[in-house]
UniProtKB/TrEMBL annotation:
Gene Ontology annotations for the cellular component aspect, listed alphabetically: MLL3/4 complex
InterPro entries: Corepressor-Demethylase, TPR-like_helical_dom_sf, TPR_rpt
SMART domains tied to this protein: TPR
Keywords for the protein's UniProt record, in alphabetical order: Nucleus, TPR repeat
Coiled coil location: none
TPR repeats: 113-146
Pfam families the record matches: TPR_8 (PF13181)
Protein name: Uncharacterized protein, isoform E
GO biological process: regulation of gene expression
Organism: Drosophila mojavensis
UniProt cross-references to SUPFAM superfamilies, sorted A to Z: TPR-like (SSF48452)
Length: 361
C-alpha cells in the first residue's frame, strides 16, 4: 500500500469496524479521512486485481505445461511401440522442470488475507454494506481461524444487522461476547442485540441486553435516554402500557432530551392515548392524544408518521377536514404509504357522503 505519508498509513492501519458509528464521514470536517479511506480502498482493490491477474497467468502456464507433459508421454509411448527401445526419459526439450507441481488449486497469491478484512472495514465505515459483506465473506472463506479476529466478527455482525439478517447478526454478536465479554464495543453489541431480540419477540432477553448497554459507561453512539426509550417501548409492545407511559414521561422530564427523541416520545404517548382504554375515559384520552401528537409535530415538523397518526385521531373524533389536511401534509412530508393513501380514500368517501347528505336535507 502506498499513501502520501507514514501518518496516512498509520491512520488507515488503525481504522476498523470499531469506528463504525463514531466516525461520521458525512461531516465535512472529516472529508480528509474520507478521501484517505477511498484512496486506500482503490489501492487495495488494485492489489487484489493484480494478484488475480497473476494467478490467472500462472494457471494458463500450468495448463500449457500439462499439455506439454501429455505430448511428451504420448511421444515416449510411440517410441517404445515402434523401436522396442526403452526410453528412460522424454526428450530434454520436452522434459518438465524439476520444481514443476502438478495441476492443483491456485492459492491466494501475493495478497495478504488480511487485505480482504481491511477492505471490509473500510467499506463498512463508508456504509457501503454490499461491498463490506463481499470482502468480509472472502476473508472468512480464506482465514481458517477467523473467529480470533474480533473486529472482523463485529464488522460482519454490523453488516448483517444493517441488512436485517437478524439471525446471523445475533449469532455473531453472541459468539463475540462469549469469546470476549470485554470487547471495546460491547455496549454497541448489547443495544443491537436488544433491538433484534425485541423484534423477534424475545422480550426478556431484549430487556437484559438493554440494561447491560445502559450499565456500560464506555463511549457509545447512543445516549442513556435513547436506551431508556427503547426499554419504555419494550414495555409498550408487551402491552404494559402504564409502565411504558411512566417511563416515557420520566424521559420527557430530563432537561438533556433531544428534539428528535422528544418527538418520538410524544408520538408514542399520543398513539397510546388514542388506542389504550385503560389510560382513561375516551374523550379525555382523545384530547391528550391530539395534544401529544401536535407536540410531536412541533418538535419534528417533517415527520410524516406523526402527521398520519394525527389524521387518524382527527378521523376518530369525526373532524374530517382536519384529518384530510393532516393526511395531505403527511404525504407532502414523506410521500406517504399505503395506509396513508387508504385513509385519504376513506376520508374522501366520508366527506362525499357528508356533502351529499347536506344537499338532500
Amino acid at each position: 500500500m502506498f499513501l502520501n505519508s507514514i501518518d496516512d498509513l498509520y491512520i488507515v492501519q488503525e481504522l476498523d469496524s470499531r469506528y463504525y458509528g463514531f466516525l461520521n464521514l458525512t461531516d465535512p470536517k472529516n472529508n480528509g479521512i474520507k478521501d484517505l479511506i477511498q484512496q486506500s480502498i482503490t489501492i487495495l482493490q488494485d492489489e487484489v486485481a493484480s494478484s488475480h491477474s497473476i494467478n490467472m497467468s500462472k494457471q494458463r502456464d500450468l495448463q500449457h505445461a500439462n499439455v506439454k507433459c501429455d505430448v511428451a508421454v504420448k511421444y515416449e509411448e510411440h517410441i517404445k511401440e515402434n523401436s522396442g527401445i526403452e526410453s528412460h526419459a522424454c526428450d530434454s526439450k520436452l522434459a518438465l522442470p524439476s520444481d514443476f507441481k502438478p495441476k492443483g488449486n491456485i492459492g491466494v497469491g501475493e495478497v495478504d488475507i488480511e487485505t480482504y478484512c481491511k477492505l471490509g472495514h473500510l467499506h463498512l465505515l463508508l456504509t457501503e454494506y454490499y461491498e463490506a459483506l463481499s470482502a468480509y465473506q472472502k476473508y472468512m472463506r480464506l482465514c481458517p481461524k477467523y473467529w480470533n479476529n474480533h473486529s472482523f466478527l463485529y464488522g460482519l455482525g454490523i453488516v448483517y444487522f444493517e441488512f436485517r439478517c437478524f439471525k446471523w447478526s445475533i449469532k455473531l454478536f453472541q459468539e463475540l461476547l462469549y469469546l470476549n465479554p470485554y470487547f471495546v464495543c460491547a455496549n454497541e453489541i448489547h443495544l443491537r442485540l436488544g433491538l433484534m431480540l425485541k423484534v423477534n419477540g424475545d422480550f426478556r432477553s431484549a430487556l437484559k441486553h438493554f440494561q447491560l448497554a445502559l450499565a456500560d459507561s464506555s463511549p457509545s453512539t447512543f445516549s442513556d435516554l435513547q436506551v431508556k426509550f427503547q426499554i419504555a417501548h419494550l414495555y409498550e409492545v408487551q402491552n404494559k402500557h402504564k409502565a411504558a407511559k411512566e417511563s416515557y414521561e420520566f424521559i420527557l422530564n430530563d432537561k438533556n432530551i433531544s428534539l428528535d427523541l422528544k418527538a418520538d416520545i410524544y408520538r408514542q404517548l399520543g398513539w397510546m392515548y388514542h388506542c389504550v382504554e385503560c389510560l382513561g375515559e375516551k374523550k379525555e384520552r382523545e384530547s391528550k392524544a391530539l395534544r401529544f401528537l401536535q407536540k410531536s409535530i412541533e418538535a419534528e415538523p417533517k415527520c410524516g408518521q406523526s402527521l398520519y397518526l394525527l389524521g387518524r385521531c382527527y378521523a376518530g373524533v369525526n373532524k374530517v377536514h382536519d384529518a384530510f389536511l393532516a393526511y395531505r401534509n403527511s404525504v407532502e412530508k414523506s410521500e406517504g404509504n399505503a395506509d396513508t393513501w387508504c385513509s385519504i380514500g376513506k376520508i374522501n368517501q366520508r366527506m362525499h357522503y357528508k356533502h351529499t347528505y347536506a344537499q338532500y336535507n
